[in-house]
Design a protein that fits this description.
alpha+beta, cytoplasmic vesicle, GAE_dom, golgi apparatus, AP1_complex_gsu, protein transport
Length: 821
């Protein structure tokens, strides 16, 4: 029994559009798909074309239609043009090179490429150019190349686009199409010209040889572009009064590639680019598209300076356009060119700053980035005023980036230290919650180094603290400064502005208020407690400070509790050390780590000063102390080793002093890399007793010593041993001797190892290497080598000899195998 004729595509569309719900539409689609499947099973050739067309419509709606793939192949093999058209369309939509079915089409496409009808050939070219795999492209490239040489413009334009796809899939076939490209630009048909330029662009982008070969076509391309600009009205190619803007854009893009880095080609196209820039109508979007492409070409080639200024002026006009897309494009382009043509972009500074007030967030972000790029020493005050105003009113999403940009610009171009400090404090008061983590230590470093501004800064920060304690970075910096320079605040020594009258109790009230405030984070409370502790050496209210510190010895916050317990210990057991520990911080500098390319900033969360290390010997510590030291060094920030000076007492352990010094910013001395964290035991207080017990246990295996450095009378020898608890740790003891007639003073030894190792550099025995080999300086290095790789080390030696500073670098690569295997 013959099935009834299936409904037409038009009827199916009408039926589906009547569906009121998604479920109703799905039911209609499923019903129709079932009917189409039945028709396919019965090999119904009469209505196959109609069914595949309906299937493609369902595919466009998002429903599965893969079961029609083979039917598309059957339609392609048909002799009827209508069948082929739907078959090829189905193949382009339902097939891709990931499915093996597409390979069955290769023979059909080959036959159709040689068909007597140009429309059938066009269908085959379109399909191959859309979804042809690399295997198909290899098999059919010859036919495409043949059609590229034909005189039929309808086929040539399709063959050119198909050739682009072939080159993308199989780049080595590029040379096959080279002879066919010779006459492509002589074609009068704009469609062929357009596709030819696309083909040439693809070849130039993929092959430097092709780029050099096609540079000789620049005069011809310039001539075509000139004819397009000068030609009269042509209804066939006119778009909003401009002759074939699509072809113009494509030619400009190709000229950009050909002229990049080539003086002769750039010279040949300078005049035509100037003509395009001055003659193109800007009232319509079409003209703006051509001008934008012209600007990009001018900026990419080696163009004349006047032409570049003209291009930037075009972008400046774009900034005044009502269309947001054009303004965004202009800002993005100016951002790319600001480094090379800074002065030309500066002329449009006021327009760019006005864009900060735009309602569109994308434009505001680009304008902000460009504004920071325009900041220099001459306009820093005016630009910062605008950017600070923007920071006040901008959305929260912008505040972090804006604050960071202001910090960087102020650091680079600040006209004075007072202006620098005022600017950063303004940022902290308006957007403190959004600044990045490194802003606090950076500002602390700036304040520390500005010695003459200490009284002014601490007074400003104290007043800011009275107004608002919600901005945590501001509160942290203020707490640090009050702890460091509280005596200057109370004494009223500020010369830059009228000093305020404040008592010790008022200052302590503010800091205690921070400790109990719900707005304070745990880090802020740590800053406040440490500031109160520092004031014990600057204020006379010692009993009140002791009481506050003791209260927090039982705090629920472990970090705060630990600080308080250690500070209590300073008051009770080590009161003789407290004044030295809580001295003012010295000037802090950004110091290089022992890694070859890394830098480290001095830690902002500084609680105390460095102990005096000039004239006291270093102390060997027991093994548990080394573990605590490794724990101290774990993490991202590198903390240089400090040479501490304390009386020698009987042996007990060492974690607490290291914890006590845990947030010191330690500068000076050798700088180690971060070491891995080691589980820490809970020993008694370190200062209860120290011993000269060796840090590491010797092992039986003997590792031969080596000479690592021998120059200018200075000899550095390495001796080796293994750490008993961890065989992956090599312990290297350096012995520095001096054979000259004068002492080597201020001697510092530093070392760096590759990233696969971890290195810890302990304190040296002295910083003076005696003359005539009458003594030596020793220092212990621990190297963790978990992967048992060959040890390599770079060393840096710094010392003063006969009044002259000496600095030298050396590579040590000849370590004995026993030291690292």
């Amino acid at each position: 029994m013959r099935m009834p004729a299936p409904i037409r595509l038009r009827e199916l569309i009408r039926t589906i559009r009547t569906a009121r719900t998604q479920a109703e539409e799905r039911e209609m689609i499923q019903k129709e798909c079932a009917a189409i499947r039945s028709s396919f099973r019965e090999e119904d050739n009469t209505y196959r074309c109609r069914n595949v067309a309906k299937l493609l419509y369902m595919h466009m709606l998002g429903y599965p239609a893969h079961f029609g793939q083979l039917e598309c192949l059957k339609l392609i093999a048909s002799q009827k043009f209508t069948d082929k058209r739907i078959g090829y369309l189905g193949a382009m939509l339902l097939l891709d090179e990931r499915q093996d079915v597409h390979l069955l089409m290769t023979n059909c496409i080959k036959n159709d490429l040689n068909h007597s009808t140009q429309y059938v050939q066009g269908l085959a070219l379109c399909t191959l150019g859309c979804m042809g795999s690399s295997e198909m492209c290899r098999d059919l490239a010859g036919e495409v190349e043949k059609l590229l040489k034909t005189s039929n413009s309808y086929l040539r334009k399709k063959a050119a686009l198909c050739a682009v796809h072939v080159i993308r899939k199989v780049p080595e076939l590029m040379e096959m199409f080279l002879p066919a490209t010779k006459n492509l630009l002589s074609e009068k048909n704009h469609g062929v010209l357009h596709t030819s330029v696309v083909l040439l662009t693809e070849m130039c982008e993929r092959s430097p040889d092709m780029l050099s070969h096609f540079r000789k076509l620049v005069p011809q391309l310039v001539r075509i572009l000139k004819n397009l600009i000068m030609s009269g009205y042509s209804p066939e190619h006119d778009v909003s009064g401009i002759s074939d803007p699509f072809l113009q854009v494509r030619i400009l893009r190709l000229l950009r590639i050909l002229g990049k880095g080539d003086d002769d080609s750039s010279e040949a196209m300078n005049d035509i680019l100037a003509q395009v820039a001055t003659n193109t109508e800007t009232s319509k979007n079409v003209g703006n598209a051509i001008l934008y492409e012209t600007v990009l070409t001018i900026m990419d080639i080696k163009s004349e300076s006047g032409l570049r200024v003209l291009a930037i002026n075009i972008l400046g006009r774009f900034l005044l356009n009502n269309d947001k897309n054009i303004r965004y494009v202009a800002l993005t382009s100016l951002l790319k060119t600001v480094q090379t043509d800074h002065n030309a972009v500066q002329r449009h500074r006021s327009t760019i700053v006005d864009c900060l007030k735009d309602l569109d967030v994308s434009i505001k972000r680009r304008a902000m980035e460009l504004s920071f790029a325009l900041v220099n020493g001459n306009n820093i005050r005016g630009m910062m005023k605008e950017l600070l105003y923007f920071l006040d009113s901008c959305d929260p999403d912008f505040k972090a980036d804006c604050a960071s940009g202001i910090f960087l610009a102020a650091e680079k171009y600040a006209p004075s230290k007072r202006w620098h400090i005022d600017t950063i404090m303004r940022v902290l008061t308006t957007a403190g919650s959004y600044v990045r983590d490194d802003s606090v230590p950076n500002l602390i470093q700036l304040i520390t180094n500005s010695v003459e501004m200490h009284a002014y800064t601490v007074q400003r920060l104290y007043k800011a603290l009275l107004d608002d304690i919600s901005q945590q970075p501001l509160v942290q910096v203020a707490s640090w400064c009050i702890g460091e320079y509280g005596d200057l605040l109370v004494s009223g020594q500020c010369e830059e502005e009228e000093p305020i009258q404040v008592s010790e109790d008022e200052v302590l009230d503010v800091l205690e208020g921070l400790l109990v405030s719900n707005l304070s984070t745990p880090v802020t409370r740590g800053y406040s407690l440490t500031a109160i502790m520092k004031l014990s050496t600057r204020f006379s209210s010692l009993n009140r400070i002791k009481k506050v510190v003791s209260i927090y010895g039982s705090s629920i916050d472990v970090e705060l509790q630990q600080r308080a317990v250690e500070y209590n210990a300073l008051f009770k057991k080590y009161d003789h050390m407290r004044p030295a520990l809580l001295e003012r911080m010295p000037i802090m500098e950004k110091t290089a780590t022992n890694g070859p390319s890394e830098t480290v900033q001095t830690n902002g969360e500084t609680d105390s000063t460095i102990l005096d290390t000039k004239h006291l010997p270093s102390i060997s510590q027991p093994a548990s102390q080394a573990n605590d030291l490794l724990d101290l060094l774990g993490g991202n920030d590198v903390v240089p080793i400090i040479q501490t000076t304390v009386p020698t007492k009987p042996a007990s352990a060492g974690g607490e002093l290291l914890d006590l010094l845990g947030d010191l910013s330690l500068t000076g001395g050798p700088t180690p890399t971060p070491a891995s964290s080691v589980p820490m035991s809970q020993p008694p207080f370190l200062l209860d007793g120290l011993t000269s017990q060796p840090l590491f246990n010797d092992i039986a295996a003997v590792i031969p010593p080596m000479t690592a450095y021998n120059k200018n009378g200075l000899i550095i020898e390495f001796t080796f041993e293994r750490s008993n608890p961890n065989p992956n740790i090599a312990v290297i003891t350096i012995h520095a001797t001096n054979s000259t007639e004068a002492d080597m003073t201020e001697f510092v030894f530093q070392a760096a190892v590759p990233k696969t190792f971890q290195l810890q550099l302990l304190s040296p025995s002295s910083n003076v290497v005696p003359a005539f080999n009458q003594g030596s300086v020793t220092q212990v290095i621990r190297v963790l080598n978990p992967q048992k790789q060959q040890l390599r080390m770079r060393i840096k030696l710094t010392y003063t000899h006969k009044g002259s500073p000496v600095q030298d670098l050396a590579e040590v690569n000849n370590f004995p195998p026993q030291s690292w295997q």
